[in-house]
Write a structure and sequence with these properties.
This protein is α+β, with helices and mostly antiparallel strands. It is built from 15 helices and 15 strands. The chain has one domain: Alpha-Beta Complex (Amidase signature (AS) enzymes), CATH 3.90.1300. Helix content is 36%, strand content 14%. The strands form four sheets. It has an eight-stranded mixed sheet with strand order 6-8-7-14-15-11-9-10, sandwiched between helices. Strands 1-3-2 form a three-stranded mixed sheet.
Length: 490
């Protein structure tokens, strides 16, 4: 069991089902790995080992009785500390100090469906306050380090989950994604971050059940291979009575890994038309895309049709999230805690506070509709492109992993190639498909000259998740990335 950290979730579940190893043995190995590695990465901010071990022993009893098993029976996994809930577990909404002891009373959709599939949660992973940036750092817990270089950040907002998976603490972890928060950290940690089509997987949000469309917000997974991403999507997809936006559409993606992409037309956008890209990123991506031609697809460089300055698009994303945050802050205030008050605001980043104050109550319905019109332009550009191409590929993010700071406020770069960008999200064009709802994944494209991971972004037509997964699987076969994990030394 010393190599448990090398196993995928699918492989682990198979070994447990075949009784080659017990769920309790797997769990003990997982706990040992977390205790050894986590102090160096700060990926987990909460663990519940006694509960997890008891659940593992119970999983072994169920197996011995011959009961029907879920596809992840006995497999240890992690959940994210943001808008993600499990009864009795703390929920700090991304490391807000005043909420460190805030105990959840409900289950989020991810926990509900993963536990029904037999998975066992071992703990919660780090994220930034309210998930409002592409890095993982906060006042309460500090930054999550990148397993490939612990002086650097793991990305965000699901950085704790990505670091936990890349380092072998767990094979599968939850990510949530409102602007790229599954795919951004996947790009920086050599992992697979899959985010489904809009409406395919549920998200349970209250008090406003419709908040997850402004822009689209998703629950999904970060894994080390495409097979686990396919398995996870099969578990998570399908309508839920608590989500008015999730439809009943359920597809079998189990054959996606074998489909191939011969004859597909793929549009390659080196910079999403308007985003400056660091040279290290471009060098890896330009080499990686040759794989698709080798697999029989036709690849050509394209313009998507985005005409505004990149800063205007990122500002729209930042503004659209402010009403969601303010609504959350108001709900918390009604329970007795005013996080925006002078004595409590130290738990929130200066950038988050600036946006909340700048947009504020003065953000009118007219302002909202202007921003939604810009969002619609992005949607129309993608739809027009997909009338000609099956897939769009590009860099996942435009910058290499940044150095951690010691102030709880690690951010991305504020400038690339001499061009000013928003350090919160402007180097993460992933948010464009949160505007549009197209299925998107980041797969490991390779390592830069400095030995740091670079992610390739693959986007498909709406509800064509199978195309995205098929292309991801082909890429993994022809340009595997599993060998890069051997470079992690913790």
């Amino acid at each position: 069991m010393t190599d448990i950290e090398k196993l995928s979730a699918t492989e682990t579940a198979r070994l447990i089902r075949e009784k080659q190893v017990s769920a309790a043995e797997v769990m003990q190995s997982t706990i040992n790995r977390i205790e050894k590695i986590n102090p160096k990465l700060n990926a987990f901010i909460f663990t519940s080992f006694d509960e997890a071990m008891e659940n593992a022993r119970q999983a072994d009893k169920v197996l011995a009785q011959g009961d029907v098993l879920g596809p992840l029976h006995g497999v240890p996994i992690a959940m994210k500390d943001l808008f993600d809930f499990k009864p009795g577990w703390p929920s700090s909404l991304g490391g807000i100090p005043q909420l460190k002891n805030n105990i959840a009373e409900i289950k989020c959709g991810f926990v509900e469906r993963m536990e029904s599939a037999g998975a066992i949660f071992v703990g919660k992973t780090n994220s930034p306050a309210m998930g409002y940036r592409g890095t993982t750092d906060n006042v309460a817990f500090g930054p999550t380090s990148n397993p490939f270089d612990t002086s650097r950040n793991a990305g965000g907002s699901s950085g704790g989950s990505a670091a936990a998976v890349a380092s072998g603490m767990v094979a599968l972890a939850e990510g949530t994604d409102g602007g790229g928060s599954i795919r951004i950290p996947a790009a920086w940690t050599n992992t697979v971050g899959y985010r489904a089509s809009a409406g395919r997987t549920p998200l349970l949000v209250r008090p406003n059940a419709f908040a997850n469309t402004l822009p689209y917000i998703f629950e999904g997974t970060i894994t080390r291979n495409v097979e686990d991403a396919i398995l996870s999507l099969g578990i998570l997809q399908g309508a839920h009575p608590g989500d008015p936006n999730c439809h009943q559409l359920v597809n079998d993606f189990s054959d996606a890994a074998l489909r191939g992409i011969k004859g597909m037309k793929i549009g390659f956008s080196p910079n999403l038309d308007v985003f400056p890209v660091e040279n290290e990123v471009s060098q890896v991506i330009n080499e990686a895309i040759k794989v698709f031609e080798t697999a029989g697809a036709h690849v050509e460089e394209i313009k998507i049709g985005l005409h505004r300055d990149q800063r205007e698009y990122s500002d729209v994303w930042c503004r659209l999230f402010v009403p969601i945050m303010r609504h959350s802050f108001q709900a918390i205030k009604e329970s007795g805690l005013d996080l925006l008050s002078k004595e409590n605001r130290h738990g929130l980043s200066p950038d988050l506070l600036r946006w909340v104050e700048e947009v504020g109550p003065g953000y009118t319905a007219d302002d909202l509709y202007k921003d939604l019109s810009i969002r619609s332009e992005v949607f129309d550009a993608y739809q027009a492109t997909f009338s000609k191409y099956d897939l769009i590929i590009s860099p996942t993010v435009t910058a290499m992993p940044v150095k951690n700071t010691n102030d709880g406020n690690t951010k991305g770069p504020s400038q690339i190639n001499g061009i000013d960008i928003d350090p919160l999200i402007g180097w993460c064009p992933t948010f464009l498909t949160n505007f549009t709802g197209h299925p998107s994944v980041s797969v490991p494209a390779g390592l830069s000259a400095s030995g740091l991971p670079v992610g390739l972004h693959i986007v498909g037509r709406r509800q064509a998740d199978g195309d995205v997964l098929a292309a991801s699987a082909v890429f993994e076969r022809l340009r595997p990335w599993v060998q890069h994990y051997a470079r992690i030394s913790l």
